[in-house]
Write a structure and sequence with these properties.
Helix content is 34%, strand content 24%. It is of the alpha/beta class and 207 residues long. The two termini are 16 Å apart. Pathway: Purine metabolism; IMP biosynthesis via de novo pathway; N(2)-formyl-N(1)-(5-phospho-D-ribosyl)glycinamide from N(1)-(5-phospho-D-ribosyl)glycinamide (10-formyl THF route): step 1/1. This is Phosphoribosylglycinamide formyltransferase.
Protein backbone atom coordinates (compact mmCIF):
# COMPACT_ATOMS: atom_id res chain seq x y z
CA UNK A 1 0.00 0.00 0.00
CA UNK A 2 1.08 3.56 -0.52
CA UNK A 3 3.17 5.34 2.07
CA UNK A 4 1.56 7.95 4.38
CA UNK A 5 3.09 10.72 2.29
CA UNK A 6 1.43 9.28 -0.78
CA UNK A 7 -2.16 8.60 0.24
CA UNK A 8 -3.68 5.25 -0.80
CA UNK A 9 -5.54 5.54 -4.08
CA UNK A 10 -9.16 4.45 -3.80
CA UNK A 11 -11.36 3.01 -6.53
CA UNK A 12 -15.09 3.26 -5.84
CA UNK A 13 -17.35 0.71 -7.55
CA UNK A 14 -20.94 1.81 -8.23
CA UNK A 15 -23.98 0.64 -10.15
CA UNK A 16 -26.35 3.57 -9.66
CA UNK A 17 -26.56 7.16 -8.50
CA UNK A 18 -23.59 6.94 -6.16
CA UNK A 19 -24.85 8.83 -3.12
CA UNK A 20 -22.30 7.16 -0.85
CA UNK A 21 -19.65 7.83 -3.47
CA UNK A 22 -20.42 11.56 -3.29
CA UNK A 23 -20.08 11.60 0.51
CA UNK A 24 -16.75 9.78 0.23
CA UNK A 25 -15.45 12.19 -2.41
CA UNK A 26 -16.52 15.28 -0.48
CA UNK A 27 -14.96 14.02 2.75
CA UNK A 28 -11.73 12.93 1.03
CA UNK A 29 -11.25 16.51 -0.18
CA UNK A 30 -10.84 17.73 3.38
CA UNK A 31 -7.28 18.48 4.55
CA UNK A 32 -5.61 15.55 6.26
CA UNK A 33 -7.92 12.85 4.95
CA UNK A 34 -5.74 9.73 4.57
CA UNK A 35 -7.01 8.52 1.18
CA UNK A 36 -7.43 9.85 -2.35
CA UNK A 37 -10.48 8.97 -4.46
CA UNK A 38 -8.75 8.23 -7.77
CA UNK A 39 -11.36 6.32 -9.79
CA UNK A 40 -15.09 5.63 -9.98
CA UNK A 41 -15.83 2.43 -11.87
CA UNK A 42 -19.30 1.17 -12.83
CA UNK A 43 -20.71 -1.98 -14.35
CA UNK A 44 -23.58 0.12 -15.76
CA UNK A 45 -22.55 2.43 -18.62
CA UNK A 46 -25.24 5.04 -17.92
CA UNK A 47 -25.04 4.98 -14.11
CA UNK A 48 -25.85 8.52 -12.92
CA UNK A 49 -22.96 8.38 -10.47
CA UNK A 50 -20.43 8.44 -13.32
CA UNK A 51 -21.49 11.94 -14.32
CA UNK A 52 -21.41 13.03 -10.70
CA UNK A 53 -17.85 11.70 -10.34
CA UNK A 54 -16.77 13.44 -13.54
CA UNK A 55 -18.16 16.66 -12.13
CA UNK A 56 -15.72 16.30 -9.25
CA UNK A 57 -12.87 15.84 -11.70
CA UNK A 58 -12.42 12.17 -10.85
CA UNK A 59 -11.47 9.60 -13.48
CA UNK A 60 -14.31 7.26 -14.43
CA UNK A 61 -14.50 3.94 -16.23
CA UNK A 62 -17.11 1.36 -17.20
CA UNK A 63 -16.87 -2.41 -17.48
CA UNK A 64 -20.30 -3.59 -18.60
CA UNK A 65 -20.96 -6.98 -17.01
CA UNK A 66 -23.56 -7.79 -19.68
CA UNK A 67 -20.88 -8.11 -22.35
CA UNK A 68 -19.39 -11.06 -20.46
CA UNK A 69 -22.57 -13.14 -20.29
CA UNK A 70 -22.42 -15.54 -17.36
CA UNK A 71 -18.63 -15.45 -17.09
CA UNK A 72 -18.37 -13.52 -13.84
CA UNK A 73 -14.65 -14.05 -13.42
CA UNK A 74 -13.90 -12.70 -16.91
CA UNK A 75 -15.90 -9.58 -15.99
CA UNK A 76 -13.97 -9.21 -12.77
CA UNK A 77 -10.61 -9.72 -14.47
CA UNK A 78 -11.51 -6.87 -16.81
CA UNK A 79 -12.37 -4.70 -13.80
CA UNK A 80 -9.14 -5.72 -12.13
CA UNK A 81 -7.16 -4.57 -15.18
CA UNK A 82 -8.79 -1.15 -14.98
CA UNK A 83 -8.12 -0.89 -11.25
CA UNK A 84 -4.47 -1.83 -11.75
CA UNK A 85 -4.11 0.61 -14.65
CA UNK A 86 -5.22 3.38 -12.28
CA UNK A 87 -2.85 2.14 -9.56
CA UNK A 88 -5.66 1.55 -7.09
CA UNK A 89 -4.73 0.48 -3.57
CA UNK A 90 -8.17 0.12 -1.96
CA UNK A 91 -11.53 -0.86 -3.44
CA UNK A 92 -14.72 0.58 -1.96
CA UNK A 93 -18.11 -0.88 -2.92
CA UNK A 94 -20.81 1.79 -2.90
CA UNK A 95 -24.06 0.44 -4.27
CA UNK A 96 -22.25 -2.02 -6.54
CA UNK A 97 -24.92 -4.55 -7.39
CA UNK A 98 -22.76 -7.54 -8.28
CA UNK A 99 -21.72 -10.43 -6.05
CA UNK A 100 -17.97 -10.99 -6.30
CA UNK A 101 -16.37 -14.33 -7.07
CA UNK A 102 -13.83 -15.87 -4.72
CA UNK A 103 -11.12 -14.96 -7.24
CA UNK A 104 -11.78 -11.21 -7.02
CA UNK A 105 -12.25 -11.28 -3.26
CA UNK A 106 -8.93 -13.07 -2.83
CA UNK A 107 -7.24 -10.66 -5.24
CA UNK A 108 -8.30 -7.69 -3.07
CA UNK A 109 -8.29 -9.42 0.31
CA UNK A 110 -7.89 -6.90 3.10
CA UNK A 111 -8.12 -4.05 0.58
CA UNK A 112 -11.84 -4.11 -0.25
CA UNK A 113 -14.68 -2.83 1.93
CA UNK A 114 -18.45 -2.64 1.59
CA UNK A 115 -21.32 -0.88 3.32
CA UNK A 116 -24.44 -2.87 4.14
CA UNK A 117 -27.76 -1.38 5.31
CA UNK A 118 -28.20 -3.39 8.47
CA UNK A 119 -26.52 -4.03 11.79
CA UNK A 120 -24.63 -7.13 10.71
CA UNK A 121 -24.82 -10.04 11.35
CA UNK A 122 -28.55 -9.23 11.25
CA UNK A 123 -30.38 -9.05 7.91
CA UNK A 124 -27.86 -10.09 5.31
CA UNK A 125 -28.66 -9.93 1.62
CA UNK A 126 -31.28 -7.66 0.10
CA UNK A 127 -34.44 -5.90 1.34
CA UNK A 128 -32.82 -5.28 4.72
CA UNK A 129 -35.27 -2.55 5.77
CA UNK A 130 -38.21 -4.84 5.05
CA UNK A 131 -36.49 -7.59 7.01
CA UNK A 132 -35.98 -5.25 9.96
CA UNK A 133 -39.61 -4.11 9.97
CA UNK A 134 -40.91 -7.66 9.69
CA UNK A 135 -38.66 -8.73 12.57
CA UNK A 136 -40.03 -5.95 14.77
CA UNK A 137 -36.63 -4.72 15.94
CA UNK A 138 -36.38 -1.42 17.81
CA UNK A 139 -33.17 -0.30 16.12
CA UNK A 140 -31.63 -0.73 12.70
CA UNK A 141 -28.64 0.79 10.95
CA UNK A 142 -25.65 0.15 8.71
CA UNK A 143 -22.31 -1.63 8.82
CA UNK A 144 -19.01 -1.22 7.00
CA UNK A 145 -17.11 -4.48 6.67
CA UNK A 146 -14.20 -6.09 4.91
CA UNK A 147 -15.33 -8.18 1.95
CA UNK A 148 -14.84 -11.94 2.26
CA UNK A 149 -16.09 -14.74 -0.02
CA UNK A 150 -19.25 -15.31 2.06
CA UNK A 151 -21.86 -12.62 1.37
CA UNK A 152 -22.08 -9.87 4.01
CA UNK A 153 -19.99 -11.94 6.42
CA UNK A 154 -16.69 -10.04 6.63
CA UNK A 155 -15.40 -8.55 9.89
CA UNK A 156 -17.27 -5.36 10.77
CA UNK A 157 -15.17 -2.18 10.84
CA UNK A 158 -17.85 0.24 12.06
CA UNK A 159 -21.59 0.54 12.58
CA UNK A 160 -24.16 3.29 13.00
CA UNK A 161 -27.62 2.82 14.54
CA UNK A 162 -30.99 4.45 14.02
CA UNK A 163 -34.26 3.92 15.90
CA UNK A 164 -37.14 2.15 14.20
CA UNK A 165 -40.06 4.51 14.74
CA UNK A 166 -43.78 3.76 14.93
CA UNK A 167 -45.27 4.13 11.48
CA UNK A 168 -41.99 3.53 9.66
CA UNK A 169 -42.15 1.94 6.24
CA UNK A 170 -39.25 0.75 4.10
CA UNK A 171 -38.75 4.18 2.54
CA UNK A 172 -38.67 6.21 5.75
CA UNK A 173 -36.40 3.71 7.45
CA UNK A 174 -34.10 3.52 4.42
CA UNK A 175 -33.77 7.31 4.32
CA UNK A 176 -32.79 7.44 7.99
CA UNK A 177 -30.20 4.70 7.51
CA UNK A 178 -28.78 6.32 4.35
CA UNK A 179 -28.07 9.52 6.26
CA UNK A 180 -25.99 7.48 8.68
CA UNK A 181 -24.22 5.68 5.83
CA UNK A 182 -23.00 8.99 4.44
CA UNK A 183 -21.24 9.77 7.71
CA UNK A 184 -20.05 6.27 8.57
CA UNK A 185 -18.45 5.22 5.29
CA UNK A 186 -15.84 8.01 5.08
CA UNK A 187 -14.87 7.35 8.71
CA UNK A 188 -14.43 3.63 8.07
CA UNK A 189 -12.44 4.22 4.90
CA UNK A 190 -10.15 6.59 6.79
CA UNK A 191 -9.54 3.91 9.41
CA UNK A 192 -8.55 1.38 6.77
CA UNK A 193 -6.49 3.81 4.69
CA UNK A 194 -4.54 5.01 7.72
CA UNK A 195 -3.86 1.47 8.93
CA UNK A 196 -5.87 1.93 12.11
CA UNK A 197 -7.79 -1.22 11.22
CA UNK A 198 -6.73 -4.14 9.07
CA UNK A 199 -7.78 -7.63 8.06
CA UNK A 200 -5.21 -10.13 9.34
CA UNK A 201 -5.74 -13.87 8.88
CA UNK A 202 -9.45 -13.29 8.39
CA UNK A 203 -9.89 -11.27 11.57
CA UNK A 204 -10.19 -7.55 12.26
CA UNK A 205 -7.18 -5.99 13.96
CA UNK A 206 -7.26 -2.48 15.44
CA UNK A 207 -3.95 -0.69 15.82
Amino acid sequence: MSSPANRPRVGILISGRGSNMVSLVETARQPGYPAEIALVLSNVPDAPGLDRASGFGIATATVDHRTFGKDREAFERAMDEVLRAHQIDLVVLAGFMRIMTAWFVKRWEGRMINIHPSLLPLFKGTHTHRQALEAGVSEHGCSVHFVVPELDAGPVIAQAKVPVLPGDDENTLAARVLTQEHGLYPQALAAVASGAVALVDGALVRR
